[in-house]
Design a protein that fits this description.
0% strand
Length: 417
C-alpha cells in the first residue's frame, strides 16, 4: 500500500499531495490499511473441520470433562482455551520453569522437548515405512494404503497446523464502531497505572530523534543533512529487528515472575535473563554486520561522493549503537515483564531532558565555531546514550535478581526457624 501510494502521489505537482507530502499521505494510508487488516483478522473466525473439533472439545470441557493439552497432539486444548474467552485460563508457568531450570521435576519434560525439537528439525513425524512393513509382515496393496493413511494422520496430528489462536479472538465481541467509543470507566481505571509510565517511555524515546533532526537541519551543512537522511533510513530499517526481543521477553517473563517466590522461580528468572542476553548479543553482532554494508549500499541512495563520505563517518557511532541494541531491548522487555514500570518511566523521563541537552550543546558549539560538528559527531554522542542505557538496564536487572534471591533466602530461614 505504501509503495502504491508513493507511485500515485509523489509525482503529483499539487503541493498538498505531491513530493514529500505525497510520501507522508502514502504512509498514513498504509497505516490505516494495516489497522483494517488487523481488525479483520481478529474478528474473522476460521471455518474448518479442525475448528469444529475444537468447538466440540470446548463444549465437552464446559460439561465438566478435563481437556489435557499435553495429550492433545493437535494443540486442541490450548487453542480452544484461547478462542473461547469464557473457558478456564491455561497456566503454563510451571512448564516454562521446568524447561528453563535443571530441576528434577522437569527432567522428563526437558528430554521430551529435546526429542521433539530433533524430530522437527529432521522432518521425522512418523515411523519409517520399512520398519512398519516388517512389523506388519504384509506388503499387500491394501496394507500399504492403510499404512499410508495412518502415516498421513500421524503427520497431520504431529505437525502444528491450523489457524493461530489469535485469529477470531474478537469474533462477536467487537464492532468497528467500538474504535470510536470511549472505554468504560472501570476498564479505564485498570489501565490508569500504566498510562503515565508508558507515555513517559514513549516520549523519552522520540525526544532524541527529534533533537538529532533539529541539530542536523539547523547547525549542519547541506552535505551532513543529506547524509543524516541516508543514515536515518538505514536506522529505521534495522531498529525493528531487535524490537522482537523486547516483545518476546514481555510475553515470556510474566509467566515466571507471577509465580510465588521460590528457589525454582529465582533460578528460572536467572536462566531466562542469561539466555535472553545471549540472544541479544547475537542480534547485536548481526546488526553490526549489516551496518558494515552501509558504505556499499549508500551508493544506491546518493551519487554525491561528499555525502557518502559523511555517511561513512557515522558508521562507528552507528555500529556501537546497534551492537548494544539487542541487550537494550532484552533489558527493557524483561523489566516490562516484571512490571517495573515506575523505574522505566523515571528513566525515560530523565532521558527526555538529558539526550536533547547534550545534542543541543553540539549545535551551540557548531554555531560558535568551537567544534567541527558533523553527522559522525552526532551519532557518536547518540551511541554514548545507548551505552549508558544498556548499563542502567543491566544494573537494574541484577538488582531485581538480587531481591528475588533474598526473598528465597528469607523464605528458607523462616521455614527453618
Amino acid at each position: 500500500v505504501n509503495a502504491l501510494g508513493d507511485a500515485m502521489f509523489v509525482g503529483s505537482s499539487h503541493p498538498w499531495i505531491g513530493g514529500c507530502a505525497g510520501a507522508a499521505w502514502a504512509t498514513v494510508a498504509s497505516q490505516y490499511a494495516a489497522l483494517g487488516m488487523f481488525v479483520a483478522w481478529l474478528k474473522s473466525r476460521p471455518r474448518s473441520r479442525r475448528q469444529q473439533r475444537r468447538k466440540g472439545v470446548v463444549a465437552n470441557s464446559e460439561e465438566g470433562e478435563d481437556v489435557d493439552s499435553s495429550r492433545d497432539e493437535d494443540g486442541v486444548g490450548l487453542k480452544s482455551g484461547v478462542s473461547n474467552l469464557n473457558s478456564q485460563k491455561l497456566d503454563i508457568s510451571s512448564a516454562i520453569m521446568e524447561l528453563t531450570t535443571k530441576s528434577e521435576e522437569g527432567k522428563t519434560r526437558r528430554k521430551r522437548f529435546k526429542r521433539t525439537v530433533k524430530s522437527v528439525n529432521r522432518g521425522r513425524f512418523s515411523l519409517s515405512r520399512n520398519w512398519t512393513d516388517r512389523r506388519m509382515g504384509n506388503n499387500s496393496k491394501r496394507r500399504r494404503k492403510e499404512k499410508k493413511k495412518n502415516d498421513t494422520t500421524t503427520t497431520s496430528s504431529s505437525t502444528p497446523s491450523g489457524p493461530p489462536p489469535s485469529r477470531g479472538v474478537l469474533s462477536n465481541r467487537f464492532r468497528t464502531i467500538d474504535l470510536f467509543k470511549l472505554p468504560p470507566l472501570a476498564a479505564a481505571r485498570e489501565f490508569w497505572p500504566f498510562v503515565i509510565p508508558v507515555t513517559t517511555t514513549a516520549i523519552g524515546r522520540i525526544s532524541g530523534y527529534i533533537a538529532m533532526s533539529h541539530v542536523a537541519s539547523s547547525a549542519l551543512g547541506t552535505i551532513d543533512m543529506a547524509a543524516q537522511a541516508v543514515i536515518f533510513s538505514f536506522f529505521c530499517c534495522l531498529t525493528p529487528i531487535c524490537d522482537s526481543l523486547n516483545l518476546t521477553a514481555q510475553s515470556f517473563v510474566p509467566a515466571i515472575y507471577e509465580k510465588k517466590p521460590s528457589a525454582a522461580r529465582a533460578d528460572a528468572l536467572r536462566h531466562t535473563l542469561r539466555n535472553f542476553s545471549k540472544v541479544g548479543g547475537i542480534f547485536g553482532a548481526a546488526l553490526v554486520a549489516m551496518v558494515a554494508t552501509i558504505p556499499v549500499l549508500s551508493q544506491f541512495f546518493t551519487t554525491d561522493l561528499a555525502v557518502r563520505t559523511s555517511v561513512n563517518l557515522a558508521i562507528p557511532g552507528l555500529s556501537l549503537f546497534f551492537a548494544l541494541s539487542g541487550l537494550v531491548c532484552v533489558g527493557e522487555g524483561i523489566l516490562l515483564g516484571q512490571k517495573d514500570l515506575k523505574f522505566l518511566g523515571n528513566a525515560y523521563g530523565a532521558y527526555f531532558f538529558a539526550v536533547p541537552y547534550f545534542l543541543l550543546r553540539l549545535k551551540k558549539r557548531a554555531i560558535m565555531g568551537l567544534q567541527d560538528v558533523g553527522v559522525g559527531t552526532m551519532w557518536r554522542t547518540f551511541s554514548i546514550y545507548q551505552a549508558i542505557r544498556c548499563c542502567i538496564w543491566l544494573a537494574r536487572m541484577k538488582q531485581l535478581q538480587g531481591r528475588t534471591d533474598r526473598q528465597v533466602e528469607e523464605q528458607v530461614v523462616s521455614q527453618v526457624a
